[in-house]
Amino acid sequence: MFLVSPIGTDGLLSVDEISPSSLLQFFKEIPEVSQSVAHNNFSPRGSALGCLGFFELSTRTRVSFEAAGRLLGIDWIHWSDVHTSVQKGESWKDSFEVLSHYGIDFYVIRHEAVGFPRMVREWTDAPVFNAGDGAAEHPSQSIGDVYCLWKLNSSKEWKIGFYGDILRSRVFASSSRLMKKLGWEVFAIDDGDVNLAGRVTELGVPLIPRESLRDLDVCFVLRTQKERGGVSTLGPLKQGDLRPDMYWMHAGPVIRGQDMEEDLCNYHEPKCLVLDQVKACFETRILLLKNWLRGKQIEK
After folding, report:
1. DSSP codes of every residue in 154-172
2. 284 assigned to some structural domain
3. Is position 112 within any domain?
4. I need a surface site. Which of 43, 53, 174, 177 has the fewest CB within 10 A?
């Protein structure tokens, strides 16, 4: 029996909706999700109808939301801007208002425009899970990433350094804020971009030089966001940047030789958490959707 974490019961647009206590409660519920996956102990199909609206490239997030929903008996409608009346000239608002009359219970939305998932919620009056909006938010990814470290040591006050295209990364924006809610120390590695100071100051994250990375517990590598004009002068993370006992993370996809040198791209290395993040984000999305289903049942 799941406990009473409220996260996901009405969708999830931002990590700002998450309190430290609800986040810790959510983490305590994830192991039951893991057991359910192992025993295939989920619901029959037809429990709800969701819309996967992905208007930016995605593999991990889209597939994991879809797989999570299928385990819970959720049927999906797929929608992308390649197959939409918006290409014919209809406004996004009109398209979603039409779609809302097709019996869709909730939406999972990714879009390049900051705030677009929130607009979808207003247009449809339905729960929305934000699967990424521009460089602003990626809450489900951040929950899974933070859970990875909490699971390793729930009492540790982690020190994490973000390395790479910080300026355009929504993973950095969401994860840094969520980590700080737990009292962890978060830093950004300075790549010399003159615009970076404003970005990190807004989020309350101090800039540190590359050589200070070795003083931390974790290096979180960020992909260069080419689709948003991203660049980083740091070059790939190198083995020599890390202490032997440091962990490293990457939300994926990893661009070998560009984000990290090849020697660090062994996902089965004990200090590499890339595959742990994949598993944790999948379980996170299962629990988010399960909480939404539970909230729907309570409303009935």
Report:
1. TT---EEEEEE-GGG-HHH
2. yes
3. yes
4. 43
Q: Using CB atoms within 10 Å of the CB of residue 107, give its burial: 0 to 12 exposed, 13 to 18 middle, 19+ buried.
A: buried
Domain membership of residue 63 as a residue range: 11-138+279-299
Read off the pTM: 0.92
- Number of domains the chain is built from: 2
CATH no. for residue 23?
Answer: 3.40.50.1370
pLDDT in tens, 195-233: 899 999 999 999 999 999 999 999 999 987 665 555 667
Tell me: the pLDDT tens digits for 125-182? 999 999 999 999 999 999 999 999 999 999 999 999 999 999 989 999 999 999 999 9
Is residue 148 a part of any domain in this protein?
no
